[in-house]
Amino acid sequence: MTLHLGPDPGSIARACALIGSGELVAFPTETVYGLGADATQPNAVAKVYAAKGRPSFNPLIAHIADIEPAMRQGAFNAAAVKLAEKFWPGPLTLVLPLRRGATVCELSRAGLESVGLRCPSHPVALALLRAFGKPVVGPSANLSGHVSPTSAAHVLSDLDGKIAAVIDGGASRIGIESTIVGCAEGRLVLLRPGIITRDELQDHVGQHIDIPSFSDNNTPTSPGRLSAHYAPETPVRLNATELYPGEALLAFGTETIPGVTAATVIANLSHKRDLTEAAARLYSALRDLDKAGATAIAVAPIPAYGLGEAIMDRLIRAATPSSFSE
Ligand code: TXA
Ligand code: MG
Q: Which residues line ligand 1 (CB under 6 A)?
């Protein structure tokens, strides 16, 4: 049985003790729920891969409470410092060369000589990280390949009985995973789009941020870019301007499109076409529609600029048959 803990200090202390003894505890962040384990204990990290069914060549990110402990794990160049100072705590993950003396274990990095670091802004996550005092791995707390969890109920529907506890911090405010920037070799690369957009990052750092080319996607230095994940079981059809019989509709704004009267079920990401609201609802809506027994989830067109870029990134992966997942 998985313990369902509240966000109170007593529960956070209990979660800390569990993580310290090598157990898995899911915790809330402002993006999605993470599956926490002691990043310095290979046995604990091995349990994370096993519980998620995640391939062990796909590295985990480590969560820390502040920039100083992060600097003991990763080698920050000037651009990385600038980004961390501006956007931490917050929905940004930096992938950096591994620092000599780093304590995150090799298994958590899938053997890479780099490390993904994130300082979340959710008060419960920060309290947990401060109390624990060591880096905590935190992949999204879902089964590998499945939709990321934005509530404790989502976590339990994937991982009940497989993890020691989940700390319930309510619905995730942002709803999609952090923006990931790779900062190595004097070059910045957007490894995963998120709520902090490429324009915002570039404006702040005064440097161009590359988007990995397709050939980059097949190198092990950016495993998260490889093919499909974030997927419901029902097939996903993008840019739908009409609905076929038996389909469920994932709307963005209007719900009056041809064929809609036959829709099994409708979820609307945002009636007022607000991308922030759409991101926050995305995974919950996909999970709900997945239960409807529809032939497909037809997704209305969503603008691919700003935060829409990150939403479309996830939807394209949800619509791609899976050969690799996180
Ligand atoms: O918002 C988030 O980032 C959430 C919350 C819980 O913090 N976490 C999350 O973790 O989305 P995960 O493991 O589901 O996604 C992290 C991505 C993966 O695609 C992984 O391949 C990539 O980061 N990654 C981790 N370490 C890396 C490294 N050293 N080099 C390149 N990519 C890395
Ligand atoms: Mg994930």
A: 29, 31-32, 34, 58-61, 93, 95, 109, 112, 114-116, 118, 120, 138-140, 177-178, 180, 191, 221-224, 326
Tens of pLDDT, residue by residue over 3-21, are 999 999 999 999 999 999 9
Cα of 58 from ligand 1 centre, angstroms: 9
* Pocket mutation for ligand 1, best pick of 25, 30, 57, 93 (most atoms within 8 Å of C-beta): 93
CA dihedral 254, 258, 261, 262 (to 10 degrees): -120
- Per residue in 65-80, pLDDT tens? 999 999 999 999 999 9
**Predicted confidence (pLDDT) per residue in 132-161, tens digit:** 999 999 999 999 989 999 999 999 999 999
